[in-house]
Amino acid sequence: MSGETDKTVLGALRHLIHHGPLSRPELGTALGLSRATTSPIINDLMRRGLVSELSTTPQGQRGRPVALLDLDDERYAVTGLEIGSDRVLAGVYSLRGRQLLRIERSATPDAVNPRGLLRHAAAVLHEALDVLDQEGRELLGVGVSVAGLVDATSGTIKYAPTLGWRDVALQAGVAEALGGRAPVLLDNDANLAALAELRRRRRDGLPTTSLVYLTGTYGISAGIIAGGQLWRGERGLAGEVGHLIVEAEGRKCVCGRRGCLDTRAGLSAIIATCLENASTPRRAGRTPIGISAGVEEIASRAQSGDAGVLEALADAGAWLGRGAALVCAMLDPRTVILGGHYARLAPWLLAPARESFRRALLMPAPEYEQLEVSGLDAWAAAEGSALAALLALADGISPLP
């Protein structure tokens, strides 16, 4: 293929990733191509096994079935790996984003050094890929997400406060563990979760021009979508909103400073405050280990009506709303989305968050709700990691099969 044709093929693949299923005329119109030009491009993608036709049920008694184009859901897979201080998640996805397999393994405390945690993550990844091999699917790429400042270009973690890592070449480590089987990329968990949310909203027909996804996992980071594209900032380090100072001389943060938003609305802070203020004391030996276990513990207590936990969650929600308002003051997105474990705690966080959010906004949007809860669960970053591996094909970073 020529260079220009190559770009058009990649553009068609990219458009179907975000907007499929589409008819051939719809795809051609979106790409600004004639039917004669569109057909060979579609045929090329179908020959590669990346795109297939779906037959839809006709409307009414006399209509003919309409063939729609979408990503092929049977031949290939992409994998997302999320590495955290308390757990490693590996999710295998079809090209349309259907989750084929999920594996969650806790990370032991002594594994929080880079080599130990990488070995643990590699074992989880190989466990997932063994299942993939049994199903006969071909792996197209692996995306890896970590909470912290990530240089996606070099695949290096510049600083991950919850892990205590600096300048860790994690992408190279995962690629070595994978043995060159497929391309590997690395990015911040908020960026990757934002990509997953963007595709979900596009395929659901929701507004997607601008949004900010706030993580609810190991720290508060923002995945920023501007002009329909992921915005990384000048050095690729945008979005660490959890370390905005919101309280002068406030609580000490893991970053070494005081008064960061993370100390009031981050999951570790929420869990600690809720358990400290719980009306019913914890039984000996029942201290939750890790963010996920802690979230489930306080959700259970909130559901049972524990007054101390409910009060602490309301306070955390108010701080979260103020933080979201600061994000809006700086970036003016249409929507701020609370994701990760915030979605699990939304029944108790959302109302106070929205109240403080509206009070803090300079110019609220009266015609729609700006603060929403993600439609994705705590696996958003893993799903976004897999999606990023797929988008790397459409961006020409990884070779087409």
UniProtKB/TrEMBL annotation:
<protein>
    <submittedName>
        <fullName>ROK family transcriptional regulator</fullName>
    </submittedName>
</protein>
<dbReference type="InterPro" id="IPR000835">
    <property type="entry name" value="HTH_MarR-typ"/>
</dbReference>
<feature type="domain" description="HTH marR-type">
    <location>
        <begin position="10"/>
        <end position="52"/>
    </location>
</feature>
<dbReference type="InterPro" id="IPR036390">
    <property type="entry name" value="WH_DNA-bd_sf"/>
</dbReference>
<dbReference type="InterPro" id="IPR000600">
    <property type="entry name" value="ROK"/>
</dbReference>
<dbReference type="InterPro" id="IPR043129">
    <property type="entry name" value="ATPase_NBD"/>
</dbReference>
<dbReference type="InterPro" id="IPR036388">
    <property type="entry name" value="WH-like_DNA-bd_sf"/>
</dbReference>
<dbReference type="Pfam" id="PF12802">
    <property type="entry name" value="MarR_2"/>
</dbReference>
<comment type="similarity">
    <text>Belongs to the ROK (NagC/XylR) family.</text>
</comment>
<dbReference type="GO" id="GO:0003700">
    <property type="term" value="F:DNA-binding transcription factor activity"/>
</dbReference>
<dbReference type="Pfam" id="PF00480">
    <property type="entry name" value="ROK"/>
</dbReference>
